[in-house]
Design a protein that fits this description.
alpha/beta; Rossmann fold; Pantoate--beta-alanine Ligase, Chain: A,domain 2; three-stranded antiparallel beta sheet; binds adenosine monophosphate
Length: 290
C-alpha cells in the first residue's frame, strides 16, 4: 500500500491504476482514521467489488461542531496505515489540512431540506453536514472513484451523500455497508476508546433502546408512540437519556406515526463526555432500503 499526501501524487497514482486496468473500478472508503472493524468491513467490501481501493484518512474540522470533540478525536496514522494495508487497501490518501483547505478556501457545498436538517443536522447544527458534503465532494473530485463505500452506522450521512450525488450528478455509485458491532452489541466507533470505566456499560443503552424497539415491532406494535415508549424505557432504565430517539421514514427522515417494515429508529446520546449515535431498521428490510 502506498501513502499519498498531495492531489497531484494521488491523481498520478489513480491515473496509472486506470491505465494499467482500464475496466477496473476505483473504490473509495472515506474515513477520519482511528480505524476499527467497521472501517475494515468497508475496506473489505471495496476490495471485493473494486480492482483498486483508496482509503482516505482526514479528520475534517469542518464537520465538528464541538472543538473539544475535534481536539479529543483519536489519531494514529501509522497504526491506521498498517490496518488499512492488511485489509487490502492499495492507496492511503492522507492529505494535510492545507491540502484540503488551502489558505483562502471559500467554497461550501450545502444540502438543505429535512434529510440534512433533521436529527444530526438539528442537534449538531447545519454546519455539520455542510462540512461533510463539502469534504466528500472534494474527496470525490480528488480521487474520482467509480464507487464509494459508507457505513449504515451513519444512516443519515448515507442519505445526505446519496442526495448530494443525485443533485450534483456526481459520477460515483454509493454502496452502504451494515453496522459492525462489538460482541455485546455496541456499534463500533472511533469514539468508543473514550468510554472509560462506568461509561462503557452505559453505552449499551443505545443498543438496548433499539433492541426494545425491534422487540415491540416484532410483538406487533405499529403505533410510533408505543414503540418509542418501549425504546425510551429501555434506555432510561440503564440511566441514559437520549439526545434524540426518533422513528422516521428511512428515505425522507420524516417522523412517522404508524410503523412500517423499514422504519428507521435513530438514536443519539451522551455517555459521560462522549456523544454516540446508532440506528436500526425495523422489520426484515436490510439497511432501510425498500
Ligand atoms: P468515520 O471515520 O467515523 O468518519 O467513518 C468512516 C466510515 O466508516 C463512515 O462511512 C462510517 O459510516 C463508517 N463506519 C463507522 N463506524 C462503522 C460501523 N460500526 N460499522 C460500519 N461502518 C462504520
Amino acid at each position: 500500500m502506498r501513502t499519498l499526501r498531495t492531489v497531484p501524487e494521488l491523481r498520478t497514482a489513480v491515473r496509472a491504476a486506470r491505465r494499467q486496468d482500464p475496466t477496473g473500478a476505483i473504490g473509495l472508503v472515506p474515513t477520519m482514521g482511528a480505524l476499527h472493524d467497521g472501517h475494515l468491513e468497508l475496506i473489505r467490501r471495496a476490495r471485493l467489488e473494486c480492482e483498486h481501493v483508496v482509503v482516505s484518512l482526514f479528520v475534517n474540522p469542518a464537520q465538528f461542531n464541538a472543538s473539544a470533540d475535534l481536539a479529543a478525536y483519536p489519531r494514529d496514522e501509522s497504526r491506521d496505515a498498517g490496518v488499512a494495508s492488511d485489509a487490502g487497501a492499495d492507496f492511503l490518501f492522507a492529505p494535510s489540512l492545507e491540502t484540503v483547505y488551502p489558505p483562502g478556501f471559500a467554497t461550501s457545498v450545502q444540502l438543505s431540506g429535512p434529510i440534512a436538517e433533521s436529527l444530526e443536522g438539528a442537534h449538531r447544527g447545519a454546519a455539520h453536514f455542510h462540512g461533510v458534503t463539502t469534504v466528500v465532494t472534494k474527496l470525490f473530485n480528488m480521487v474520482q472513484p467509480d464507487v464509494a463505500f459508507f457505513g449504515q452506522k451513519d444512516a443519515q450521512q448515507v442519505l445526505v451523500i446519496r442526495k448530494l450525488v443525485a443533485d450534483l450528478d456526481l459520477p460515483v455509485r454509493i454502496e452502504t455497508v451494515p453496522t459492525v458491532r462489538e460482541p455485546d452489541g455496541l456499534a463500533r466507533s472511533s469514539r468508543n476508546v473514550r468510554l472509560q470505566g462506568d461509561d462503557r456499560p452505559l453505552a449499551l443503552a443505545l443498543r438496548a433502546g433499539l433492541t426494545a424497539a425491534e422487540r415491540a415491532f416484532t410483538a406487533g406494535a405499529r403505533d410510533a408512540g408505543t414503540v418509542h415508549a418501549a425504546a425510551l424505557a429501555a434506555m432510561t432504565d440503564l440511566g441514559v437519556a437520549p439526545e434524540y430517539l426518533a422513528l422516521v421514514d428511512p428515505l425522507t427522515l420524516a417522523p412517522v406515526d404508524a410503523i412500517d417494515d423499514g422504519t428507521l429508529v435513530a438514536v443519539a446520546a451522551h455517555v459521560g463526555g462522549t456523544r454516540l449515535i446508532d440506528n436500526t431498521t425495523l422489520g426484515t428490510t436490510p439497511n432501510g432500503r425498500r
